[in-house]
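Usage example:
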Amino acid sequence: MFLINCPYCGERDQSEFSCGGEAHIIRPKQPTELSDDQWAEYLFMRKNIKGVQFERWNHAHGCRKWFNMVRDTSNDKIHAVYKMGEKPPVE
Amino acid sequence: MTKYRVNKTKHVDQTKTVSFDFDGKSYHGFEGDTLASALLSNGVHLVGRSFKYHRPRGIMSSGSEEPNAICQINEDTDLTEPNVRATEIELYEGLKASSQNCWPSVNFDIGGINNFISPFIPAGFYYKTFMWPKSFWKKIYEPLIRWSAGLGKSPTKPDPELYDHKHVHCDVLIIGGGISGIIASKIAAKNNLKTILIEDKNILGGSTIFQKNENYKINDKYSGEWIDEEIAELKKLNNLTIKTRTSLAAYHSYNYLLAKENISDHLPLDKKNGGIRQRLWKIRADKVIVATGAIERPLVFNNNDRPGIMLSNSVKKYLDFYGVSCGFKNVIFTNNDSAYETAVSLKEKGISVEMIDIRKKSNSKIVKNAEQLGVKIYWNSTVVNTFGLRKIYSIEIMNLSEDGSNVVGNKIRINCDCLGISGGWTPMVHMHTQSGGKLDFREIDQTFIPNEIDKNHINVGSCNGDFELEEIINNTNKKVKNYLKVSETEFDNTSILNSKELDKRNIWLLPNYISEGKCKSFIDFQNDSTAKDIKLALREGFKSIEHVKRYTTTGMATDQGKLSNMHALGIIADTAGVKMGTLGTTTFRPPFTPLTFGSIVGRSVGNFFDIIRKTSIHKWHIQNKAKFENVGQWKRPWYYPINDEDLHDAVQRESKAARDSAGILDASTLGKIDIQGTDASEFLNRVYTNAWSKLGIGKCRYGLMLNEDGMVYDDGVTTRLGENHYLMTTTTGGAANVLSKLEDYLQTEWPELDVYLTSVTDHYSTASICGPNSKKILKKIFTDKDFSDDAFPHMSYQNGKIDEINCRIMRISFTGELSYEINIESKYGKSLWEKCIEAGKEFKITPYGTETMHLLRAEKGFIIVGQDTDGTMTPIDLQMDWIVSKKKYDFIGKRSLYRSDTIREDRKQLVGLLTDDPNEVLEEGAQIVSDMSKKPIEMIGHVTSSYFSPNLNKSIALAVVKSGKKMSGQKLIVPMENKNINVTVSDSVFLDKENKRINA
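Running the assembly step on the lines above writes:
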């Protein structure tokens, strides 16, 4: 059970949050211009990394804000949290 | 006092007798006893039969590692509890316990025949035997396995006890109240840290508390006396919470831990008073100090499982803590110094004891002390056999060869009534590994010890591999100081006298003159797996420890291999010729000891299982005898039976009334989201499939929301309240998810949009009035309002007032009838409802529930998201092409509507079904086929909604069918268990195809 440092509220229990999968996947601005394969790449393809992964999280039972997290999936270490729109930290 | 109670100790109050039953026989023990110590004081060793071979088994240990003495508590009651360890049950007056896994009794057990046929039931027996013939599985094998499977009996009634959860935060949590835990607690609490110390026993002090002899001294006091004083001081500290009878169950990441506190299990039945039985502590600690100690290892030799064979340190604990001698002619079999403590204790009390040591010699002070007391020691020897069915009576020993791989010389027979065994100690690293910690292998004593790199906790004492007194005290002090950043402590200059050494000769499987195949050298006592089974598994090609474990079931019993895992690993390493450290261990998973379901669920039972949401009109529904249906967390009126009407009759009446005159529905549960901002229209354009920019203020529009994959996600009517202000409604069950999805897009994809979302579901109550007379009823309520079709057309909204209270009136319809919905602040919901009922009286206004609502909309072919859709339906599949804008450049899911898969013509599509017999109502979920002759029969779809329509006087159904769009008029079959129902594909709109009734 993680202790997550919400960028808006501070440290809260994991039970207040929900995970929204991989971060920094940008919805194409012109979906209609894309081939089936290109659209499928956006729609379905997700990394499943053992190691450092960028994720989206939502403080669902709190401020309801979405934010990003850098987490090591092999040991659940949270390296950073940052607001939507902010640049991901460089290792 | 029984003859086995040889010693008076302060931990057992021998003035207070406690009577209890075991296997139907009455015994006496004393306050302070465990069930195990009380049984031993009565000379009872045999307490159960083993799982597979039904071999007689006795009490083996004195703690949570106990594999054999697992009991059924209060068997003759509905609330009986199985698999309780006798070594952990505190004795109370009236306790009734019985052995498990034996029939008809522990002394004479039919299943014991398995012991004699054991050569034929090796590891993997079930996998190998119950394979063929295939036809035997259902009738013979499965019932047989089910009969012999399982330990103990489950309770048959709901648990009446109360359980509790408690959330706590602390600076330091210390797990284990032995000597190192006490030192750590004292340092933490004295340095102004909010500290919690948990201990699974009922008193602190661990094994030091009964250590009172010249061999171990701290500051010139017996170590046991020293610790008594420390505990007394500890209890005076203010910022320290001590929780005894509390065992750590799980250590999750970020120092989140679960601990189970036993509150009333040790109390006599008449003193429990219906209070809380167990409390689960949910602890978030800044720092954690693990001081869980170590478990003594057994030795693996032929017939090492007889009643009377016990862990050596447990023999000492029973003697020095409980005052019970487990035997009068003891033999102790060891490979290390620690077992000599037991010998010294026994000898000092004048009880006969002899030592068998596989080592060639030892120069430790404790060994010398034993020799001085006249203890006979057989060096370089091993036990090769034991005798005694229900209790051990003698053993055979032989000398070991130089390298320990074989036995030499003659057998010597020694009579005994108790055999203590000690194979050294295994640090309890369970908590460390549960938290994600890694282990290092220490060759000198063949142990896995914690590797603390990168961990936010420390391990101290014997769970850290520090077994000798000076190491325990000094290392604990040093580590805790570092961890808590403390510069000096009272333990800095402690003088310590220790008499033993970490000197050990490790032989995982002791050699024998009897061939290996004929030896029963048990590794896992509870699951009856032997060294032979492990070797068989290796010969059959299993290499990974995780596979060997599952194949032989070693370490998979209720004790989770606390005594067996290391031996299994060692024997695998020896046999495979690899280093044990390279094998790794099996995974230690929570809970450390079994948890009750009660403690896991806490108070969340019955009405507290989930949140129950009720509308403000709920009381009226109850007064009017509504039957309720759960929709998400909501309680919604299902139907309102009059007199003894059943569901069918009530729904027929309600739905007829709604079409013939007037009906009223509580629609308050529909999700409502208030949308404001200058980009609100653009936002709706992007989330719904249809266009919103041109919707006039005061108008309503139905919208369909897709997922990005093109599948229908939610639907509902949205009303434009103002230039930049909309009120969206969602399905009842989807409200929270829709809001979350919309927020997601707003915050992450379109942060440039000026839009604000607020959930207002609970803010407004909604009464939906439908039917040809609904307009007349509305006129009576809002007397000054013009309800003509010109002034107040379908799909529009107006503000209204009831007395002084503002409300919103929407003319929208989910039934196909002329229909109005009135929204009012929730606190006025019931008054509004009653006003509508009053006004509708002359038109026989009929309240209807969700079932009638479903029927009415099905007559019109309106879908219910989640009933007629299942996450695989596009709007095109639903034949709702009309709602998908061709002009809009983009909306959520648009691109997916022409992926190669979504444009397939043979997708399942929504159609209507009419049964050839108009009185035959299909079952929802029933499969649909077209061709019964070709096997296997292809299922081409299923029924999603089905009703008998009183307004059409026939059965109607909605269904999804492959290529259904092209099948209009085609005959299909719905095969049921006892008949095939013939149906015809029809349009999905059954009633009023021209939509005349909406303006009736």
